[in-house]
Amino acid sequence: MKGSAPGQSAGFARRSGARWFLGETAVGAARTHRVPLDFLSGGRWRVDVVRDGPDGPVRESRLLTRHDTLKVRGVENGGFAAFVCRAVPGRAGCDEPVRHVPSGTLTVDPRETAADPGTEVRLDGGFTIDEFGPVTDVTLSAKAPEGWSVEGPGATAAELATGRPLTADWRITVPEQPAYGWTNIPVTVAYRDPAAGATAPKLSLRRQARVFVSPPGIDYVRDLPFSAETNGWGPVERDTSNGESAEGDGGPLRIGDRTYGKGLGTHASSEVTVDLGDTDTYDRFNADVGIDEETPDRGSVVFEVIGDGKVLGTSGVMGPHDPAHAFDIDVTGVRRLTLRVTDGGDGNDSDHADWADARLHIAAGTARR
């Protein structure tokens, strides 16, 4: 706002419809705030001021024109805020009733799931107005990504009252040759607020379901049951970093500048063991490992891949700035696979260790488990 002095004071002026909102705050000794009102149009204006006073907020009002300067007495390190509106007979203030916008909750189930190429996934969606209903012209829909298909009409309602649910379900078909990894299925609800008028744009909410498609012949370790599990801080996390001590409190798996959709988030010292079944089920194990970016400047760990008690591969000591180490290990004949993380010899502070994209290759001629 005109008159502000960097390092000494900061002011603003904003307009909403026919009302203006002014304010200024200042540091240092008490002063009189001065705001020229030449940005207003002609006529008389009501100015409602709330300013800092020696004993707390002070409220006052005055009538001014665009030819005046608003003068507000200040205090040390104080300021003011003001509403400016047209002065009309009988108007007691610039406040206006708050118009409540209808709000609701959109749910999608499942939020995440896995599927094979050419298979179907069932997706359920639901929408409920939580307060300030009813709403009108409601549509609930799911959209298929390119190459995928969605069967199901969604749901509509001419009017939806507060607390009344609107539900729909869809069958999502994965293409025979999809892009592998995560695919987002957006679910959207759009509706009108009757109080806003028929020409107002619709309100909308969007949620996404995520479908993970594995390449043929791959089983991810996170999808297998753990026969044994230990972790240095909280539980081992599936598809997220270790986070803190609670289950599910991690973020995305990130090593360096890459984010991974699948894997294990651990904290030294940790071990995760999976039983591989018959000795000819899998023939290779792959993973990218490293310190997660949620501890970008601390931590040192060693990753070890152990098969039936024998160390098959080790990363050596890794720090927070090291690039991911790629494991590619022959596990032919292994019945029991253990993924171990040790603290690197200097204690386990900030040792957030990721087994990103940890996966087993199904041996040729072996059916998927």
Summary keywords:
369 residues, single chain, 54% strand, mainly beta, 29 strands
Quick description:
The chain is 0% helix and 54% strand.
Q: Strand share of the residues?
A: over 45%
Cα separation of the termini? 68 Å
**Radius of gyration, rounded?**
31 Å
Assembly category: single chain
How many strand units?
29
User: Unreliable segments (pLDDT under 50, ≥5 consecutive)?
Assistant: none
Average residue pLDDT: 93
Number of helices: 0
Main sheet specs: 6 strands, antiparallel
Helix content: under 10%
Tell me the series of helices and strands, N- to C-terminal.
EEEEEEEEEEEEEEEEEEEEEEEEEEEEE
Could you characterize the architecture of this molecule?
This protein has 369 residues and is an all-beta fold. The chain has no helices and 29 strands. β25 (301-307) and β26 form a beta hairpin.
Fold topology:
Blueprint: E1 9-16, E2 19-26, E3 32-36, E4 45-53, E5 56-64, E6 69-73, E7 79-86, E8 103-109, E9 112-115, E10 120-131, E11 135-142, E12 149-151, E13 155-160, E14 165-173, E15 181-192, E16 203-213, E17 218-220, E18 228-230, E19 237-238, E20 253-255, E21 258-260, E22 263-267, E23 270-275, E24 282-291, E25 301-307, E26 310-318, E27 325-330, E28 336-342, E29 352-362
Parallel strand pairs: 9-16
Antiparallel strand pairs: 1-2, 2-7, 3-6, 4-5, 4-7, 8-10, 10-14, 11-13, 11-15, 12-14, 15-16, 17-29, 18-23, 19-22, 20-21, 22-29, 23-28, 24-27, 24-29, 25-26, 25-28
